[in-house]
Design goal:
Elements lengths: L2 H12 L5 H12 L4 H7 L6 H40 L15 E2 L1 H15 L3 E3 L4 E2 L1 H4 L26 E2 L4 H10 L4 E10 L10 E11 L4 H15 L7 E8 L2 E14 L2 E4 L9 E11 L1 H6 L8 E8 H9 L12 H7 L1 E2 L1
Parallel strand pairs: 2-5
Antiparallel strand pairs: 1-12, 3-4, 5-6, 6-11, 7-8, 8-9, 8-10, 10-11
Helix pairs in contact: 1-4, 2-4, 3-4, 5-10
Length: about 350
């Protein structure tokens, strides 16, 4: 049990260690569970009380010295590694900046920009309305009766302990525009709307685009021309086919649902007229109509002098049709793979 021999053995091996792996082997050899120094403590039981105190203290001193030297050596290796890293990773601050990957534009943002550009060229202005709305601007002013299904909890998000709600359409902007101004109006609104619905073609929050026009000589013919012109430019074709079907909306009379013509080519939906008329199909794309006289009266507009049209369409629906996206929920799942595939460079 010669402590000097153990210390000498450790020091001779320490000077030959060149890496952390060898250092760990030395630590185990001397300080591990079966290490040379650790084993000495098990031999104290064979000594007298006085010898235990004396020899135990010497073992502790040796263990502390060995531990200290191993720690110092370990720090030396860490410093060497850091210095090598700093040398290899130096940054030349005078060099040009590193090229970075361009950010991609979300399809919703892309479609929104396209809509704004097209309708600005048509002479429409764009207005914004609040997303938290009251009953009057969201329902009553739009000629929606108190017993209308749209008011029920399964369709509308009502705020707790409040008379307000999350708007179910952007028509509240139309009402505010007409209440705050005087005809003629030629305005659009784009924004988020909220309804209690969620599946492959519906989400609780989505984006709606709405346009309306009020003047003395506005007709259904003006409405059809605007929609045809817009959809031709948006889908970048010259032969959009629209089908107007009579429908009912409380805020328009007459009202129509508009179907757009499409065909399938290799399983992909194409907007427009096919070469073979038999391949022509239709799908609903928007709702529209002439603004109901009650809506004009609610906004203090003389319905005997002025008339107008209004239409509304989902921004996500436009994006799905133009870019071949088949699930509405993909827009909001924040999956980076979706943006990499459907995103656009600025």
């Amino acid at each position: 049990m010669n402590l000097d021999n153990i210390a000498q053995d450790f020091n001779s091996k320490l000077v030959k260690i060149t890496n952390e792996s060898q250092l760990e082997e030395a630590r185990i050899e001397f300080l591990g569970k079966k290490g040379q120094i650790t084993v000495l403590f098990s031999q104290l039981k064979d000594l007298s009380v006085d010898e235990k105190k004396s020899f135990g203290a010497k073992i502790n001193i040796l263990r502390q010295e060995v531990t200290s030297k191993i720690t110092e050596k370990k720090e030396e290796f860490a410093d060497e590694s850091l210095n090598k890293q700093l040398i290899s990773e130096t940054l030349d601050v005078t060099a040009p900046t590193r090229p970075t990957k361009k950010a991609l534009i979300h399809p919703i943002s892309k479609v929104t920009s396209e809509i704004e550009e097209i309708f600005s060229n048509f002479g429409f202005n764009f207005a914004q309305g609040p997303e938290i709305e009251d009953d009057f601007h969201n329902f009553t002013a739009l000629n929606i009766p108190e017993d209308h299904p749209a008011r029920q909890m399964q369709d509308t998000f009502y705020l707790k302990n409040s008379k307000n709600l999350l708007r179910t359409h952007t028509s509240n902007t139309q009402i505010r525009e007409m209440l705050e101004g005087q005809p003629p109006f030629k305005s659009c609104s784009l924004g988020r709307v909220f309804r209690r619905d969620s599946d492959q073609t519906h989400t609780p929050m989505f984006h709606q685009f709405e346009g309306f026009m009020v003047d003395e000589d506005v007709t259904m013919q003006n409405l059809r021309w605007i929609l045809e012109k817009f959809l031709n430019e948006f889908f970048e074709i010259d032969n959009v086919e629209l089908r107007f079907r009579p429908s009912f909306f409380p805020f328009t009379e007459p009202s129509a649902e508009v179907d757009i013509g499409y065909y399938k080519e290799n399983g992909v939906i194409k907007i427009g007229k096919p070469k073979n008329p038999a391949d022509q199909k239709f799908m609903e794309i928007l709702g529209c109509g002439m603004i109901h006289e009650n809506v004009l009266k609610n906004c203090n507009i003389d319905s005997a002098k002025y008339q107008g049209f209004a239409f509304g369409i989902g921004v996500e629906r436009l994006a799905m049709l133009k870019y071949g996206i088949n699930d509405l929920r993909m827009f909001f799942e924040n999956d980076i793979r979706f943006l990499k595939h459907y995103g656009f460079e600025e």
